[in-house]
Structures are given as C-alpha cells and as structure tokens.
C-alpha cells in the first residue's frame, strides 16, 4: 500500500508550481520531501492533505481515490512549523481535542491521551498550558496531538524549522523514534539536506515543481540522478 501521486499539475495563475508530478510513497515509511525553497514541497503536501486541489492528476491513499475527498475524510494528521495550538487548553486537552470532537467515549480518550503523553515524555506536563512548555516540548505535544486520531498518514511541513539547531536535532530523533514505535506512514517536508538524510527512510527530491529523484539516503549519495541532486546534497554543512 502507498500514497500514489499520479500526474499532478498545480498552477497558481500562469505559474506552474507542480508540473506533472508522479510519485509513490510507501506505507509505513518515513519519507522526506526535500528541496529548495519554492520548489513545490508544501504545495504537494497540501494536495496530499486535501487542503489544496490539483488542476489535474490524482491522489490515491491506501488504494482509495482521495483526489476529491475533503481533508477530514482523508484521515491525515498534521504538524506545521507554527502549529496552531489551543493556548487556553492544557497539554492533555490539546492532545484530546481530536478525539473529543469525534465523540470518543471519555475513558478511551483518557487512556489514549495518557498513552500519547507517555510516548512523547510529557506526562508530567499534562496540566500545563502550552505557553509553559519549551518550543521543543510544544512540538512534541503537536506530534502527540496529530497522532491521537490514529491517522493513516502523518504530514509534517517544516515542523522544526522555527526552533534552534540543538532542539531541531533532538526533535529529529523524536520523530524517528516515534515513527519506529507507531509505524504510521509519514511524509515530512524539509529544505534541510542533513535533516532528510539523517531521519528519512526514503527521500523525494523536488525542485521547480518536478521530482528530481526518489531514493534512500544511500542511493542519493551513491548515485545522484543529476547535477541538481549532486549540487543540492553537496551543500550539506
Ligand atoms: P516550498 O514549500 O517548496 O518552499 P511551495 O510549495 O510553498 O514551495 O511553493 C511553490 C511555488 O508556488 C512558490 O513559487 C510559491 O511562491 C508558489 N505558491 C505557493 N502557494 C501559492 C499561492 N497560494 N498563490 C500563488 N503562488 C503560490
Ligand atoms: Mg514550504
């Protein structure tokens, strides 16, 4: 099973943001969408999420044609760089939110929130407000919140971009560890080569609205498909 993007084109006016993009993202993997700014990463992620619709082409999620499904029918979890957390709600309430709006029974909600806070090591902060957490802790809360509804796909757009280097590195490890625990199909956008190479099972390199290469970190290093990929990976500091 997989997420299959087939011949997706997206224009903003005359500008072609995605140009006949086809790519298959395998189930259960941690996949990075890597490329320079303006390359079309966020647009592709938003099309997978259903937050944006393609002009042509199809999106199939686990065998279901999702091309015309609204976001809430796609069972996707999101984490964005500036994730909208509910400032007036405790950490536990934030994590519970998606379950409560789905009218899950209270004991189930409590059990699941406890499990998730344990997973991201925030149990002792469950009664705090988001403003009483560090930036890194807040993004861990955002991860727990996104996972609460057991999404088929977890989508992250530059999730750690706003944080400083040390915290970013910590969170990468968190993401990898969480993924290894829950195995949810995960697609995360980054312009940071090092982040993609360190964390991802597979990397989709995207530039100028086209896919340059799809491969494991080793494959990208050993056999870059073209000068662009070689040059871009070469910028790792
Ligand atoms: P990335 O996430 O790789 O930096 P984006 O997918 O955000 O790139 O954007 C790709 C291109 O499409 C950019 O040139 C951006 O300016 C343009 N773009 C994205 N969203 C819109 C929009 N809503 N209206 C007009 N242009 C857009
Ligand atoms: Mg972006």
Features of the shown structure:
single chain; 237 residues; six-stranded mixed β-sheet; four-stranded antiparallel β-sheet; 8 helices; binds adenosine-5'-diphosphate; binds magnesium ion; ATP binding; cell membrane
Written account of the structure:
The chain is globular and about 50 Å long. With 237 residues, the protein is an alpha/beta fold. The mean pLDDT is 92. 36% of the residues lie in helices and 27% in strands. The protein has helices spanning 41-49, 91-101, 106-119, 135-147, 165-182, 193-199, 217-222, 227-233, and strands at 2-12, 15-26, 30-34, 56-61, 64-65, 76-80, 153-157, 185-190, 202-207, 210-215. Strands 6-7-8-3-9-10 form a 6-stranded mixed beta sheet, with helices on both faces. It has a 4-stranded antiparallel beta sheet with strand order 2-1-4-5, with helices on one face. The structure holds adenosine-5'-diphosphate (ADP) and magnesium ion.
């Amino acid at each position: 099973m997989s997420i299959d993007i087939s011949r997706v084109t997206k224009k903003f006016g005359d500008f072609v943001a995605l140009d006949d993009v086809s790519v298959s993202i395998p189930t259960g993997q941690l996949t990075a969408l890597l490329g320079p700014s303006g390359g079309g990463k966020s647009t592709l992620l938003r099309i997978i999420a259903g937050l944006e619709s393609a002009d042509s082409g199809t999106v199939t999620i686990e065998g279901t044609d999702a091309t015309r499904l609204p976001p809430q029918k796609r069972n996707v979890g999101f984490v964005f760089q500036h994730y909208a957390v509910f400032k007036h709600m405790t950490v536990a309430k934030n994590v519970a939110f998606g379950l409560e709006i789905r009218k899950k029974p209270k004991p189930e909600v409590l059990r699941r929130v406890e499990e998730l806070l344990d997973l991201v090591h925030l149990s002792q902060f469950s009664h705090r407000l988001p403003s009483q957490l560090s930036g890194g802790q807040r993004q861990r809360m955002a991860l727990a919140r996104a996972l609460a509804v057991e999404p088929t796909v977890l989508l992250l757009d530059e999730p750690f971009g706003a944080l400083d280097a040390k915290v970013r590195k910590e969170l990468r490890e968190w993401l990898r560890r969480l993924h290894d625990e829950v195995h949810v199909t995960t697609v995360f956008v980054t312009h940071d080569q090092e982040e993609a190479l360190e964390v991802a099972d597979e990397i989709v390199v995207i530039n100028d609205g086209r896919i340059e290469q799809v491969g494991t970190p080793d494959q990208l290093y050993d056999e870059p498909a073209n000068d662009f990929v070689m040059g871009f990976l070469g910028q790792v500091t």
